[in-house]
Every structure is written in structure tokens, then in C-alpha cells.
Design brief:
The chain is mainly β. It has helices spanning 2-20, 182-187, and strands at 31-39, 55-60, 70-73, 79-85, 88-95, 105-109, 112-114, 117-119, 124-132, 135-143, 151-159, 171-176, 190-194, 200-210, 217-219, 223-227. The strands form four sheets. Strands 11, 12, 14, 15 and 16 form a five-stranded antiparallel β-sheet that branches. Strands 1, 4, 7 and 8 form a four-stranded mixed β-sheet that branches. Strands 3-2-5-6 form a four-stranded antiparallel β-sheet, with no helix packed on it. The longest helix is centred in the N-terminal third of the chain and has 19 residues, at 2-20. The termini are far apart. Residues 32-120 form the DUF3823 domain.
Length: 228
């Protein structure tokens, strides 16, 4: 009896090993989806930060309502390039940015697929920067194409890194606008001086935030300045 039991154990072990070594017939994910999130007010890719700026969400259609979303951070310049995706039909939409909800696109992703989205930002910033001795002066104005939440603050930002944002900066000037009427904030020309900046190359931009659900900032384009 013991001999029979030992033989049964050996057979079960061999069957288990065969199951473990069974080849996976699924092809590795190799498709790519790329494109831009366009700012409707400028016609250019929207300015954001990276990470924590805007996510691109992919929902594979074949799984229906039970599908788990695939979320990817887009780049600070408003473009995205998502590789190693399984081929198939997806719902694709940018989310969690400082803009009004975007339309969802249904996209057949196979090989390299390009798709772009147009969104309306909560605020648009028109910005310039000049150098005066060891100071950097940032001039900007706020505008908006559509009324949304109260404007909370705006700021000038300077960093030694091109990824300058409200979280990545070495110098900043902030204006608290919580008690300022939006009409006043939108009609004001801001001129902030960042004093005694050391010699070198820096990156400057302006940012402004409304009381939006995701607490996200709208940004101007990044401006490179050189201080002698």
C-alpha cells in the first residue's frame, strides 16, 4: 500500500511540473499610443507639470464595465507616448488636469496609434521674463475662456531645472487671491521680481490655481533665462 501511495505522489509531482512549464501563448504587449492634449485657447499642447499634472486613462473595451483603468502621467509639455500596450480597442481620455472635462475617444490601438485631445483650461497665462542685473522680472496676465471656480492664487516660479513647477522651484513670488474678486485678478498685470539670482541658466514660468476639485495649477510655457 505504501508503495502505491509513493507512486501516486510522484505522478502528481510530475503533472504539477508539466503544468508549470506550459508555454504562455499570449504575445507580449507591443502597441504604442501617442499624441497631445491641446489647449483650446492657444492651439498648442497644454502646459502642466510632471508628475502629478495630467493622467491619460485607457480602458480596454472588451472587458466592459468591469475593466481596471490604466493610468499614465503625460509629459510636462502636454504630450504623451505610452508604449507596451496590448493591441485592442480602448476608451482613452485625459483626466485630473486643470481643465474642463474632456471628451472620451474610442481608439483601436495597434502598432503605433496617434490621437490628440482638445481641452479648455480653467485659466490661461500670458508670460514674459527679463533679466536686470542679478534680478529676474516675470510679467504675466491671467485670462479664461469659460467661468469656473474662484481664482485662489497666482505665482512666479524660478528653478535651475526645466521641470519648474509649484513643487519644483528655488524661488517664487505668490499672490493670494482668495479675497480678490476674479474680475480684478483677471484685469491685473502682474510684475514679480525675483531678487539676487546667482549667475547661471534658469527656467521661469507663471502658475495660477482655481478652487478646482483636483487642486491643480494652470501654467505658462517655460522660459529660459541667463543671469551673468
Amino acid at each position: 500500500m505504501k508503495k502505491v501511495n509513493i507512486q501516486l505522489v510522484i505522478i502528481c509531482m510530475l503533472a504539477s511540473l508539466c503544468a508549470c512549464t506550459k508555454q504562455d501563448n499570449y504575445s507580449a504587449p507591443s502597441a504604442t499610443v501617442m499624441g497631445s492634449v491641446i489647449d483650446a485657447t492657444t492651439g498648442k499642447p497644454i502646459q502642466t507639470e510632471q508628475p502629478n499634472g495630467i493622467k491619460m486613462r485607457l480602458l480596454e473595451e472588451k472587458y466592459g464595465a468591469n475593466v481596471s483603468p490604466l493610468d499614465y502621467w503625460i509629459k510636462a509639455d502636454g504630450t504623451f507616448d505610452i508604449a507596451n500596450v496590448f493591441s485592442g480597442q480602448y476608451k482613452v481620455v485625459p483626466i485630473e488636469g486643470a481643465f474642463f472635462p474632456a471628451d472620451t475617444a474610442v481608439v483601436d490601438i495597434e502598432g503605433v496609434k496617434e490621437v490628440s485631445f482638445t481641452v479648455t483650461p480653467f485659466l490661461t497665462l500670458t508670460t514674459s521674463a527679463t533679466v536686470s542685473g542679478t534680478d529676474v522680472i516675470v510679467n504675466y496676465k491671467l485670462s479664461r475662456a469659460k467661468v469656473a471656480d474662484k481664482i485662489l492664487d497666482c505665482k512666479s516660479l524660478l528653478s535651475a531645472y526645466p521641470t519648474v513647477s509649484y513643487a519644483i522651484n528655488e524661488m517664487s513670488v505668490t499672490h493670494d487671491l482668495t479675497l480678490v474678486p476674479d474680475e480684478t485678478a483677471l484685469s491685473t498685470s502682474y510684475a514679480d521680481t525675483l531678487h539676487n539670482v546667482g549667475a547661471g541658466t534658469y527656467y521661469v514660468r507663471a502658475a495660477a490655481r482655481t478652487n478646482n476639485a483636483n487642486n491643480k495649477y494652470n501654467y505658462s510655457e517655460v522660459i529660459e533665462v541667463k543671469v551673468q
